[in-house]
Design goal:
71% helix
Length: 159
């Protein structure tokens, strides 16, 4: 009788995980946390994750690449450092994060920073001080070298 309950729980866990994946792509860590919150046993959770991996429905590297693509094409650009931080917070392994972020070249990150500076300058009646722009770009995860070069294109001095 116990094996029948386990089979029923496994089917429920798989269905729940599949339902989660219909909304958006998720990391393995996210699925595991959601199943734990529902109160499923570790054995059921592991079997469900194995099932999803075998069906290629969860793949942390693919998730990280998609996440980076979304951030690059977003209206609110962020730098590589911020992307790394957010992916680690989502439970992606640091090696996978490093590999995925390595696909972003210097020019792409520089273009994102320039886009943010241009939008910030255009939205203000008086041009913002370069210190405020530096602080904004740092909060958004851009490196200091990227910030210097982006501000240089707008004839702003980094102090």
């Amino acid at each position: 009788m116990r094996w029948l309950k386990i089979d029923r729980d496994l089917v429920k866990a798989k269905n729940y995980a599949l339902r989660l994946l219909t909304y958006r792509q998720r990391s393995q860590h996210e699925i595991k946390n959601r199943l734990e919150q529902k109160g499923y046993d570790q054995c059921i959770i592991e079997q469900t994750l194995d099932f999803l991996k075998d069906c290629k429905l969860i793949d942390d590297y693919q998730f990280a690449q998609q996440y980076i693509y979304n951030k690059i094409s977003s209206a609110k650009p962020v730098g590589v450092n911020r992307m790394k931080y957010e992916l680690v917070q989502l439970g992606i392994d640091k090696d996978i994060v490093s590999d995925a972020v390595a696909t972003i070249d210097y020019q792409t990150e520089l273009d994102l920073a320039k886009k943010l500076v241009k939008r910030t300058i255009n939205n203000k009646t008086s041009p913002p001080k370069s210190q405020k722009l530096v602080a904004l770009l740092l909060r958004r995860g851009f490196s200091y070298n990227i910030i210097k070069e982006a501000l240089r294109d707008f004839d702003l001095d980094v102090t």
